[in-house]
Amino acid sequence: SKFYECRENAWANLMVTHVNHALYTGLISFWVARKSRDAQCWIARGNESKLTLKRWAESSPWTFENKWYLLEAEESFSHNDYEAAKLFYKHAISSAKFHKFVHEEALAYELAAYFYLELGEMEQSIEYFLAAHERYHEWGAFGKCNSLFEFVKRSPASIESDVAP
After folding, report:
1. pLDDT by residue (tens digit) across 80-94?
2. Which of 22, 47, 68, 113 has its CA 20 to 30 Å from the CA of residue 84?
3. What is the pTM (predicted TM-score) of this model?
């Protein structure tokens, strides 16, 4: 009996690791694509992760939908399709909120805030940074809260020159 319990937990842990790998590989890939001369290579890598999460989202929207939307937003941002990116960030935030993934809602708000910052839409950016701060606080990520607070309290000129999330 204990053998089967351990085996089931090991499988679940492996799945969580695989999900996180797909999500964060995709996020990193699209971010690097926006900063790199070899953008197509990074976009291809991000697309692999996005398609993996899309397949999972089709079978379990509750768990994977918000992650897939977030990768869609980041890909759209990488392709300078700002209207699509705005829509996908909103979907990622709404889905994470609806499905009670507070930490992923915080991440979606934060990435959307950086997106709006790069577009020069300061008011929207600050609004999203504050929402991310609230969600991280709710989740108990106080170090992240402090980091965001320090970032946002700087002058708008220094925020606009800061490109790394």
Report:
1. 999 999 999 999 999
2. 22
3. 0.86
